[in-house]
Amino acid sequence: MMSDSPADLIITGCTVLVHDDQERIGFEENATIVVRDGAIESVSTAPATVEARQHIDARGQVALPGLVNCHTHAPMVALRGLAEDLPTEEWFNDVVWPVESNLTATDVALGARLACAEMIRGGVTCFADHYFSMDTVAAVVEECGIRAHLGEAYFSSQGPQGREKSLEFALRHRDGAGGRITTALAPHAPYTVDDADLTATADLAREHGLPVHLHASENRDQAETSLARHGVTPIEVLRRTGILDTDVLIAHGSGILDRDLPLLASAAGLTAVATAPRGYLKFAWPTTTPVRALRDIGVPVGLATDGAASNNSLDVWESMALTALIQKSTTGDPRWLTSRQALHHATLQSARAVGLGDRIGSIAPGRRADLVLVDLTGPHTQPVHDLAATLVHSARSSDVRTTIVEGRILMRDRELLTIDVPAVVAELGERLPALVDRGHGKRIQEYDT
Amino acid sequence: MMSDSPADLIITGCTVLVHDDQERIGFEENATIVVRDGAIESVSTAPATVEARQHIDARGQVALPGLVNCHTHAPMVALRGLAEDLPTEEWFNDVVWPVESNLTATDVALGARLACAEMIRGGVTCFADHYFSMDTVAAVVEECGIRAHLGEAYFSSQGPQGREKSLEFALRHRDGAGGRITTALAPHAPYTVDDADLTATADLAREHGLPVHLHASENRDQAETSLARHGVTPIEVLRRTGILDTDVLIAHGSGILDRDLPLLASAAGLTAVATAPRGYLKFAWPTTTPVRALRDIGVPVGLATDGAASNNSLDVWESMALTALIQKSTTGDPRWLTSRQALHHATLQSARAVGLGDRIGSIAPGRRADLVLVDLTGPHTQPVHDLAATLVHSARSSDVRTTIVEGRILMRDRELLTIDVPAVVAELGERLPALVDRGHGKRIQEYDT
């Protein structure tokens, strides 16, 4: 039953992306969305009769579930463009890890704030972050109003303290920021976290009901090196350490091999993969995430950008288009990964990948009110013969006009309401000389798959 | 010597992309650009002392040579999104060519106007168009102020009239619109124009001093079919018909084979290739334009979008980023096609590809004043560690704030000054039902490589 009191927000006149009971993508025209207490109360094509404290006239716009960045390192926007045109190992060892040795909590806060500004402007309402100084990132999430799935990263080189800190973070921040923050245990990867640590992590995950977010089989090299050194693939390492028995989000997986698929299939329902195809192209990796094979075994694939140090942006809209294009190209099949499939990855599959499949990812009554309004009046998105294709292949993240999380407007008509970008940029600019200094010769970690 | 009379336009406070005498990309900060009589009079970091009728304060912005779309079919924006997720032959035969049979001059005018609006908003100041009803496209170019290199396309199925019409168009519009229009002979492709017609075209090109713009070896299938049917590649057809002895712009060339390279090498200086990588991915073609091999033999490669019916946009900025990414990926070399190389393709090489290497493509005294101002204050383009990388991999076409052709401002602060987009969209919307009707069963041509 509808409440008689005014709703918090009403959006009228828009076309809404909806999912039917088979999860097929559809569109309802001239719809009204009513938001109350941070949730979607109704989506209707009947004339609006509800009063609301805020009203958005969204004629000419399309309402989509907010995009989810399923794997990033938000504070790394501070390193955007610092390590260009390099192979992966030089990128890590010669630039990224020496610079990350300099990171302070202040740098992380500034980076996270800039990243959230970029994501909100790009229509991202939730991001899964895997980084250091995550208390600071959590504070930024709290202050700017976005949703996040956070994990404090650790290496075995930190000793047991790394794992303990990751657990302590995950427990303390779970359901933080009024439910906008969820958490995960965040071992870095099988090549930087040993089997004993992974086994202990899996035990902790089960004991505390926590998911796990880690890098695994990022590329073919990692898979082949693991096979040569240990006789098993990184996915097989996840199996034997019990990680695959937890609710696990695997970042990248472009090195997933055919022999891994039965293991992932038996973990379907618990496992998801995040794909960030731009970086794989830029690093010239030989393969991309095997999205089609994962679809065939029921493993959801969410969209991601990775950090801006490799991806140069946190533009999930671009990840959506590139996933469609690169999947067509690598499978040799122009009929595969249609625009509607891309939108399914961007909505329900991405929500599931970050463990929020029952809360976000769809504009439907009862879901949290995380949504964006997209302007299709620009010449580059006209005419519209196929709205799904227009959204995936013609529209851009810059066409997002309004971004809403839990019913709160974080960007309205492209104006950010919760982050002062010029102030962040100015303060970050002062920090950069100290941040990028590599004279100390230290690295927080060595890349050696 | 500078004139004492006021200049037409002065742009102050910007960072300017410049080329040194080795064509290396550089940037001059806090520069002043003076424009007079449609040309760049000076670029200087000294304080401006010149008076001008118009002034743009471009602090925080970067001035780049306007982008050049080296191969498109502008009016096809009317078909944007109409034929999705199809193999090339179905796309042509079942949708595009039946719909093109319906095209009227009114449709072409509306499509061209919408396309020019999209391109001007995306920082494109010149486009090479290869289509039908080109008198209409020329009129749109005249009215909206953009620069264009135009050719009236023809098939041998039209008989000798096709070729004659293409010549008549090229001669009549050469140096039209106050020099903004240049022209080419425009046979469609070796698989739709027979050898006799190509030979006659080459003769006409030499006789009249006209360049040739055509599709050739678009994909590997075309090359292999040509070899199987005729024993020669499409590039070898261009050789034996004399087309390679003309000033020729080859669209796509993703099917160029190693055996073609010596032929193209001996035509270097006359030949250029336009690459539009997005469509190759979307059609799942097995190869992309061999940019590195073409660089090695001195053939310039310009950036392009093809038509929006395959590419879904006319976003040359995206073509620039995708060219960098796809070249890294397909060569397996992350060091190849750096951001500075991508900017070289986007500027000097694209200008050369459309035969305008001495007029545009560089911001330098004496060049025509075709340039764009790009805003890098957005969170997605901060901080700037490497300006070339920021431009290629972080900035987007939507960051272009101002577009100038021949010193005339066509877009200022993202407002289009010469095209009324809502009016064009409304009128085009009324035309669409008749345009997309395929009930007649006709095709203007059959795709059969």
Written description of the protein model:
2 copies of one chain form a homodimer. Chain A is built from 15 helices and 18 strands. The first copy, chain A, is an alpha/beta fold and 449 residues long. The first copy, chain A, has 2 domains: 109 residues, Urease, subunit C, domain 1; 288 residues, Metal-dependent hydrolases (TIM Barrel, Alpha-Beta Barrel). In chain A, strands 1, 2, 3, 4, 5, 15, 16, 17 and 18 form a 9-stranded mixed sheet that branches. In chain A, helix 2 packs across helix 3, helix 2 packs across helix 15 and helix 13 packs across helix 14. The mean pLDDT of chain A is 96. At the A-B interface, helix 2, helix 9, helix 12, helix 14 and helix 15 of A face helix 2, helix 9, helix 12, helix 14 and helix 15 of B.
